[in-house]
DNA sequence: GCCAATAAAGTAATCGTTTTCATTATAGTA
DNA sequence: TACTATAATGAAAACGATTACTTTATTGGC
């Protein structure tokens, strides 16, 4: 791969002149500019981002660290971030920690070594020490989706509590009272807020969920939720919940699956509400009523906030809270009178 | 962020010694090593990957360029690649071309400038010129999922033709004959092979699909497929297909949706087969019968092949073909006798 | 006790850019 | 005409590592 030196030689000028042409900086006569441009073309010259970054002390690269790239919520988020960054002439180094503390730590180390200009982080929540390593290294950080207390970083969050409250409220208004909650990941603040919001709405309505109607799994995945739903639904009708609020959409799919296996039809025999509004929520039959997070806007806001803070390090830290919104589809229906 | 020079000063040694400690290369006495290590710890030293890459002329970074990061197939693929690379001490620069030729071109340019050691590419198929730019730049490439003729690169493909053949065959064996096909993206070789394979199976069985039973949309997405399925199914029963083979799972979801809107129940009124086996294929109700691609293995094979070719540039080009496999779930059933 | 390995450390060149500084030519101004 | 901006270029010093070369001690074999 040709270097700037070779281009300079080939055009019969100094490297400084080539650099000026490449960066459109300083003075360079039209005749020389022309010669340099043809030389670049002939040698198929691509300036080395490495050398440039080393000299300029900026990399135009952002670390994007999510817990699970193969989960719809996070892949959509990563996509939105990547797309926004591209428009602002930044690159994304996408990393997936697989909910593992070790891998998250390892990746943060790598991002520091790569001298990324900033990091968008959906933390596993296992610890905050590694985030301090970034902050101490002078790297601007914005955390997204999951909040972590006591770290001096920017935040893009959604109204998890209120969203869950309105999801539960929706079921109440449809006449349901025997409502089960399926949550997960005790170390995720977002999940905890959702649980609290939903529980609060039920308490307010005079339908406080007994302990056997609230399950909190270790992982927010299909399989766990499916198993939980089987246990919840495999009871005599008068003890069975008439509605289940799964605190993310993938878990709601687990409920669909369990219901179908037990011969229950949605929404007649069971109403289901999810959280997130991943694409599949619309695809599935019946369409999933869910508390939508504005995933795309979250990614966009995170990327733009980060860039703003990179370009002006005197900016005070920001917390952006985006609204969740209840999207009613076919998976919820009024409680049937005879129950 | 501390530099090697500062560490050297702080430890009272030369930079060469620090470098030797960092890389465990050459000789260094235990006493000095100890001093260097504490200096590194005290200054929170992280070697600059930029400077190292510049000097060593390798970046340990791989470009991963997919058409749509927010599509389940590609996010799972990217995840698998990223995970495999991490295990081999490589980083992934993940890029999403959004099926756009311009963005694909722009990203290839960026990858060249970033001096990535190699590229895994699921091409949009719009052109091959940009791939030649990579090859000419001496960058090892492996293309995955979609094939492109006449480019000297490695390939990881699946048996699209045979897979589609067996998917169609499955429907034939269940007694179906009025079978519609929904495909897309005329510029994707994978899709074309699937179409051919499916059509061939139908022809062999004496059920050649008439033109109005084969639709090829511009994009392989839910919405397009949903619209197509509406048109296919909104006919009198005797002209309506008894089965639809959608050539990817997301499109199969579109069929589910259309069927449900028209009051048809799966699999009694309509059998549906998909292609890919994305996670949602298992989640959805009824479970989607589909031709599974080994997505994870594809990503793994692509990453490992690439690394092998990076580490030994005398290796001949490889084409790896992985087997697709029919996974029968609840969306297909024998043709009811009365039809 | 001498010589050749080997161990241990440092000096300085190098990777490919950008950018400061210096130098010269040219044009504009008093 | 002399002087000062400004235009146009190049030389050379960074940026932060790695590594080829030196140099000096230390050890072991004879």
Task: Write a brief structural summary.
Two copies of one chain form a homodimer. Chain A is α/β, with parallel strands linked by helices and 339 residues long.
Characteristic key phrases:
Rossmann fold, DNA-binding, 3 domains, six-stranded parallel sheet, alpha/beta, 434 Repressor (Amino-terminal Domain), 339 residues, homodimer, 17% strand, six-stranded mixed sheet
Q: How does this model look, in words?
A:
Two copies of one chain form a homodimer. Chain A is an alpha/beta fold. Chain A contains 13 helices and twelve strands. In chain A, helix 1 packs across helix 2 and helix 6 runs parallel beside helix 7 (129-136). Chain A is elongated. The mean pLDDT of chain A is 94. Chains A and B meet through helix 4, helix 5, strand 2, helix 6 and helix 11 of A and helix 4, helix 5, strand 2, helix 6 and helix 11 of B. Chain B binds a DNA duplex (30 and 30 nucleotides) through residues 3-5, 13-20, 22-23, 25-29, 32, 47-57.
Helix- and strand-based class of chain A?
A: alpha/beta
Low-confidence stretches of chain A: none
State the share of residues found in helices of chain A, binned by percent.
40-55%
**CATH class value of the largest domain in chain A:** Alpha Beta
User: What is the residue-averaged pLDDT of chain A?
Assistant: 94
Shape of chain A: elongated
Give the name of the CATH superfamily of the largest domain in chain A: Response regulator
Q: Which range does the strand content of chain A fall in?
A: 15-25%
Query: What distance lies between the first and last C-alpha atoms of chain A, to the nearest angstrom?
Result: 75 Å
């Amino acid at each position: 791969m040709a270097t700037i030196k070779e281009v300079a030689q080939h055009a019969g000028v100094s490297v400084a002149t080539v650099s000026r042409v490449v960066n459109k900086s300083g003075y360079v006569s039209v005749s020389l500019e022309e010669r340099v441009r043809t030389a670049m073309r002939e040698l198929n010259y691509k300036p080395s981002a490495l050398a440039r970054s080393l000299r300029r002390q900026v990399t135009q690269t952002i670390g994007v660290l999510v817990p699970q790239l193969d989960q719809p919520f996070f892949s959509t988020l990563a996509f939105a971030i990547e797309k926004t960054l591209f428009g602002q002439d930044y690159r994304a180094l996408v990393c997936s920690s697989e909910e593992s503390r070790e891998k998250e730590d390892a990746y943060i180390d790598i991002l520091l070594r790569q001298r990324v200009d900033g990091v968008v982080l959906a933390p596993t929540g296992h610890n905050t020490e590694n985030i301090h390593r970034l902050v101490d290294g002078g790297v601007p950080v914005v955390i997204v989706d999951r909040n972590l207390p006591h770290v001096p970083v920017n935040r893009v969050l959604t109204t998890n509590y209120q969203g869950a409250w309105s999801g539960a409220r929706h079921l109440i208004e449809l006449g349901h009272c025997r409502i089960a909650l399926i949550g997960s990941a005790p170390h995720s603040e977002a999940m905890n807020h959702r649980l609290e919001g939903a529980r609060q709405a039920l308490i307010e309505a005079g339908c406080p969920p007994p302990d056997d109607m609230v399950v909190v799994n270790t992982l927010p995945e299909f399989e766990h939720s499916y198993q939980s739903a089987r246990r919840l639904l495999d009871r005599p009708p008068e003890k069975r919940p008439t509605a289940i609020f799964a605190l993310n959409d993938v878990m709601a799919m687990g409920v669909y699956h369990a219901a179908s296996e037990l011969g229950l039809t949605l929404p007649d025999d069971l109403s289901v509400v999810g959280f997130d509004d991943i694409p599949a929520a619309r695809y599935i039959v019946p369409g999933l009523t869910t508390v939508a997070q504005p995933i795309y806007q979250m990614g966009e806001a995170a990327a733009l906030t980060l860039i703003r803070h990179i370009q002006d390090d005197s900016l005070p830290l920001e917390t952006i809270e985006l609204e969740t919104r209840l999207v009613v589809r076919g998976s919820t229906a009024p409680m049937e009178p005879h129950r």
